[in-house]
Amino acid sequence: MRSPRFSLRTKLILSFLAIIIVGGLLSLVVGSQLIRSTLISQAQDKVRHDLSSAWMVFDGKLNDIENIVRLTAARESLRDFLRTHQIDILLKYLSRVRAENRLDVLTLLDHQGRVLLRTSSPENTGDDQSRDEIVRRALAREINAAPQIVPREELLKESAALAAQALIPLIPTPRATPHAEDRETSGMMLKAAAPILNEDGSLLGVLTGGVLVNRNYEIVDQVKEIVFKGGQYKGRETGTATIFQNDLRISTNVKDKQGGRAVGTLLMAEVKKAVLDEGRAWVAQAFVVNDWYITAYEPIKDVTGRIIGILYVGTLRRPYIDTANRLLWTFTGIAGLCVVFLLVMLYFLTTRITRPLQRMVVATEEIARGDLSHKVRVTSRDEIGSLACSFNLMTDHLREANEKLLDWGRTLERKVEERTGELRDIQSHLIQSEKLASIGKLAAGIAHEINNPLGAVLLYSHLILEDTPKGQPHHENLKKIVKETTRCKDIVTGLLDFARPKEPQSQPTDIHDLLDRCLAFTEQQALFQNIRVEKVYQPSLPKIVADAGQLQQVFMNIIFNAAEAMDATGTLTLRTSYDSAQDEVAVAIADTGHGIKEEDKKRLFEPFFTTKDVGKGTGLGLAISYGIIQRHHGTIEVQSEAGRGATFTIRLPRRVSEP
């Protein structure tokens, strides 16, 4: 016997290994995505909260400036000096206020908005500031504060140093929107203005003050200290904060490649479009200067509501990615150890399964060589042990039959020498007949023995399927195992029914009641939901003497075949009649399906012949039905044309005549 390319043990191990590997890979892929998405989502929630903290710092600074300006404007001494035009005293007083509160600008205006005194540049006075929206509101007796873009010419009026602080060269930045200009000359200022009112409520003037944000790192460093507490990862600061003037970094603690502050770099184009152009917040991953961060951006608006910049906080993405990778590698290592452990277990388990089968293979080879005395050692009481017992019994029968035939042949040879040739032919025929009979018994025995393990496989497969959640990768595989095992069991059951037909247990039977029971069984079947059933019953149909269970099997088989032929949509007609001349009852079952080809009608009742797709039928149903009707001394006929449906007519005698 030629050795198989792969042993049964190898096939079992490879099959289980394939399932384990595929399931493991799917679990790792899904798990890695879940881990990363969960960690990134948590980081985004945190950075969204961090942005709220950054706004508290930003707004707190703006409120401080507003309070300084408001309280200074409310001083009675300021009103007295202003009414008496004591400019020198005002200059000393306001300069001290500006220095003590670290303001970049503190300017006194008259009631028309003209500059009376600039503490940073006393010589520059007289220019009109009434078109400034913050000043205009203060002239209307409203205290207000807001971020504001200040042009270079206005900064120069305050001081050349302030204009130089605001001037920032633009640095080309990956993923940013290109700019035509190469520098930014204007600046962003946190500015406040308050009216100076006389005792009678008349307006004496306006006091304005502010802090230039460009290259001023007080706010961003305070945000980093409060929110991120100086955290680092592999030598890099994890948390950063930035104030943008439009899409230009004017105050930041994001580091460039040289380790300095990345002032002058530009915002990622995608974020610029969302925040500056569309005016919405951005909480997502973004490329910041030279690395990826989990970021939060919100627009900064001036007193009129126009977007003039962005407030940003971000945390380095790399720690979260590394954490996800560490978890993934940990899971991978655990999964690898589990695979090795399972392979070792599979090796020993498959050995216990395949060793008895290998013994039977050796036994069949010995029998094939003529040694009918060879026995298979029975070592278990399971299905394989039962198969070994049946195999030994078969061998005994073959040996006994062989000995009997040999003895008979020798006796015939001695009696009639002249008819040796004829007797040898007869002897050969008898030997062949006995071998076929023994093989038939073997087939029946094997079918019976296969039925038992198939039942066990089906039962445990059902149990495992019920315990396996639908989302698990093995669920669909288990459903296929149950489906194919059920099909194998149906084939074996049909084969046994066909090989060993039962004689009818006859009793008076109502055909109409039997058909109604069949239809009641189909009412809950999904296959019959779109099928209309028409019943054309002859009134007062006489009962017949028959086996109701076997006839129900015939009717159910034909009805289900009709439903499948109609693809679960159409009309099923059940018609009964009684022929008094022949004393027989006729049942016609008609469908509106695709019909039966003429060449298929001739083989319709042959065993194992079917027109269904592979895996959807055994080809035994109509053959068994034909045998049942024959044992009831009846007939079954088919009328059909391709594309026009089919009608199965069953004729049964009212009383079965004695043979």
Write a structural description:
The protein has 659 residues and is α+β, with helices and mostly antiparallel strands. It has 3 domains: 45-332, Beta-Lactamase, CATH 3.30.450; 372-497, no CATH class; 504-653, Heat Shock Protein 90, CATH 3.30.565. Helices cover 50% and strands 20% of the residues. It contains 16 helices and 21 strands. The protein has helices spanning 8-73, 76-83, 87-100, 133-139, 152-158, 160-166, 218-228, 269-277, 318-368, 383-415, 420-467, 474-499, 511-522, 548-565, 598-601, 621-631; strands spanning 105-110, 115-118, 144-150, 168-169, 183-184, 187-197, 203-212, 232-233, 236-237, 239-245, 248-252, 282-288, 291-301, 307-316, 507-509, 530-536, 544-546, 569-579, 584-591, 635-640, 646-653. The strands form 6 sheets. A 5-stranded antiparallel sheet has the order 2-1-7-6-3, with helices on both faces. The chain is elongated and about 160 Å long.
CATH superfamily of the largest domain: LuxQ periplasmic domain, N-terminal subdomain
Q: What is the CA-CA span between the terminal residues?
A: 51 Å
Spatial arrangement of strands, main beta sheet: 2-1-7-6-3
Q: Runs with pLDDT <50, length 5+?
A: 428-443
Integer tally of domains: 3
CATH topology of the largest domain: Beta-Lactamase
Let me know the number of strands. Answer: 21
Secondary-structure map:
Layout lengths: L7 H66 L2 H8 L3 H14 L4 E6 L4 E4 L14 H7 L4 E7 L1 H7 L1 H7 L1 E2 L13 E2 L2 E11 L5 E10 L5 H11 L3 E2 L2 E2 L1 E7 L2 E5 L16 H9 L4 E7 L2 E11 L5 E10 L1 H51 L14 H33 L4 H48 L6 H26 L7 E3 L1 H12 L7 E7 L7 E3 L1 H18 L3 E11 L4 E8 L6 H4 L19 H11 L3 E6 L5 E8 L6
Parallel strand pairs: 16-18
Antiparallel strand pairs: 1-2, 1-7, 3-6, 4-5, 6-7, 8-9, 10-11, 10-14, 12-13, 13-14, 15-17, 18-19, 19-21, 20-21
Helix pairs in contact: 1-7, 1-9, 5-6, 9-10, 10-11, 11-12, 13-14, 14-16
